[in-house]
Amino acid sequence: MNNTLPPWANYVLLPAINLLVAFIVSGLVVVAVGENPFKAAWLMIDGAFGSGRGIGFTLFYATNFIFTGLSVAVAIHCGLFNIGSEGQALVGGLGVALACLWLGAYIPWWMVLPVAIVMGASFGAAWGFLPGYLQAVRGSHVVITTIMFNFIAAALMNWLLVDWLRPVGQMGPETAVFAEGGWLPKLTGLMNFLGADVRSTPLNLSFFVALICCFLVWVLIWRTRFGYGIRTMGLSPSAAKYAGIRPARTVIIAMMISGGLAGLMALNPVMGDLHRLTLDIVQGAGFVGIAVALMGRNHPVGIVLAALLFGMLYQGGAEMAFDMPTITRDMIVVIQGLVILFAGALENMFRPQLSRFFLAMHRRGVAPEAEGAA
Amino acid sequence: MADTAAEQRVRAHPAIRLSGISKSFGAVRANRDIDLTVRKSSIHGIVGENGAGKSTLMSILYGFYQADSGTIEVDGKQVSIPHSQAAIDLGIGMVHQHFMLVHNFTVLENIMLGAEGAALLSGGMARARAELKRIEKDYQLEVDPDALTEDLPVGLQQRVEILKALYRGADILILDEPTGVLTPTEADHLFRILQRLREEGKTVILITHKLREIMAVTDTVSVMRQGQIVDTEPTAQTSVEAIAEKMVGRRVLLRVDKKPPRPGPVKLSVRDLTVVDSRKVPMVKNVSLDVRAGEIVGIAGVAGNGQSHLIETIAGIRRPTQGTVEMNGKTLDYDRLDPASLREEGMAHVPEDRHRMGLVLAFEENENAILGYHNSAAFGNGPFLSISAMREHARERIEQYDIRPPDCRLKTANFSGGNQQKIVLAREMERDPDVLLIGQPTRGVDVGAIEFIHRRIVEMRDAGKAILLVSVELDEIRALSDRILVMFDGKIVGERGAEATEGELGLLMAGVTDAESDRPAAPDLSMIDTTPGQAPAETQIPGERP
Predict the structure, then answer these.
(1) Which ipTM score applies to this complex?
(2) CATH label, B266-528, candidates 3.30.540.10, 3.40.50.720, 3.40.50.300, 3.40.50.261
(3) What is the pTM of this model?
(4) What InterPro entries does the database record attribute to this sequence (chain B) (predicted)?
(5) Distance from C-alpha of B363 to C-alpha of B369, rounded to nearest angstrom
């Protein structure tokens, strides 16, 4: 069935239809609470893209989702369902924060950044290594272990922040604010140059780090021998074994890359926005990453687009909730849930109909020709 | 043959009449305008190459698929069969190629499965037992209802499948490639059961690609080619050659032309190899064999007698428990070598199951053309793969092996079985290996491609390669091999030259070794014509473990 759709329909048309249906159902929900769905939609789109500030926030959220979407996608290419991006990002935050705390007072941000990248990625990778190792060597299912590791990560960070990293005299479980060297520059200047006024948004340089990661993931998966091994492993473990691709090694490294990408997500909130480590830096982005990867078909380009969509839902949804008192924050969660439902869980719902349609078109055009050849 | 009264009843209403059945999958037209009439109380054979549309047609009849157009009549009434329950209600039963049995259930439990009768099992169990007794008596299909299914030999498991269908009231039985897993003797038992069923008024549809079975047991034969029925004839009025020609659409060379072998030095030497599977059951027991340069050594045997484990162990996919393998005079250290490093040492492996091992079906063709050789310097620099080198390489192979369609970017799943196999063969043969392990080279491959593949294998032999061939197709083993080893229950039970008769090999395949064989005659297909009676005790069933 998969083969009957041309690629553009598979990658563009089908997600667009799914999205449309999700929005139609969301509109019905908005009608049910007594609001005008078109006005709500307008508020959401305007809130996300209508102003420089809106765009800045949308891209800030999208940055998180790009990192976690890539994290989930790399694991999926290896046949692993990494639910643990949430925890890996949190632990990655520890690595970023330590780099900024130690070095921020002595060297400028552009020297701290490489260290923060390495530490954030390696802390996240370490948190991905353990479930990967358990899966590869002990056969413990990675879905179960990564969920558990999310809780362990939360507890670990709680303990570290309360008992060790909290400065004396501070009430909240947070680190001290980094010195200036631990601050990533905002993209204010660039955006202003492009004509958008983004003075007060948290959008920062890690957006470009995310885009670079997209390219690197593409190279890794489709242009390297190791990526070939990852894909073989993900599509057919028995063929991987036949080909001499070492399953345990491939699984462990793929989980480490996945965890590393999740860990890099912490750059955005920790080094780019808050300039300190808190307990809620990830805010569910790890889970949204699953939807982003699904919707983006595990391809970096698709992930960027899906991340933008979810960034829009986060930012535009907040604006909508602000302007429409009857629509609460919970309603936004409902709409996001519907998008995940239709774009993720039910992504194949319209595939048979669409296939039939394309087949009918195909027959009309090509059948006589094929008949002649046969 | 049925008596005249039955004949008349039969003429009134055929068991099944299909008219104008068509079914497409995407752009593939699996069935085209098929008309088929199956007489009551007859055994109707349907033959055709793989991909000819036999299974699709039967799946439509059994409610797995819906026909795009056409009508189905059962017993003279037009019906629609939207799901398999509807087929069962109409008295159609199916015995699948791969048994659909729960291994840790007893025979009785398996037969009841899906027809339990009520929420509590006890009442239904007693009724089922009584009903099973009656069926067993009527058709002389004895099986111990309390035996665990996994303990039964394959032939008896198949019998359970038939009982299952009869228990559900089947009057029309569809058997899909039923003899693929059976020894020649077991196949004879099956044919006797089928004849017994026919005498009791059941209708049997037998799907197979083995022409001899068609000749031995059917009343009528329909030949399918490219989704169409090209011929339906009484079996008595046709011949193997005529059917083969209709299947392929041209005359087929069933023999392989080859020169006498010129064996050179020993290239592959296996000594006392023992392999256990994941359940710690020994699958290969103390096997020793040699393969010389320039010869083809064939391993014959019924599927599941250790051939797969043997070849996969030599290829480095499984670990040997004991014993050694030497290649080019060097002992292979399987703790250190994996399939990739063995390829570098000059061993190539065409796996038995190309879908599970030999190919990644979701890959583009050019990606599969380097599977296992993806670390080779020819396909990229350092850690990177060169897409252009991969495609260039794939295009060359496509041309050499006439792989169709000639599109190296097409998804591998979209190639036919024969062309998929050519992708694997091209990859493994063209890297100039010293030792070539080949498993089931023509399984699921159309007849035209078989000729090509056999010719390539013989060419490799003539180029001085040592070839170890495993196949469950006895004809293939006999056509290609210079020496034939027969495997039974994990052991090599005999060696024969290429001139060995089918009967000789058949006995060895059933485990009757040279020492204990006092019957010179092989189980002959003519035995089937004798009156149906109690089958001889099934003592020599492969897969049965002491």
Answers:
(1) 0.84
(2) 3.40.50.300
(3) 0.78
(4) AAA+_ATPase, ABC_carbohydrate_import_ATPase, ABC_transporter-like_ATP-bd, ABC_transporter-like_CS, P-loop_NTPase
(5) 10
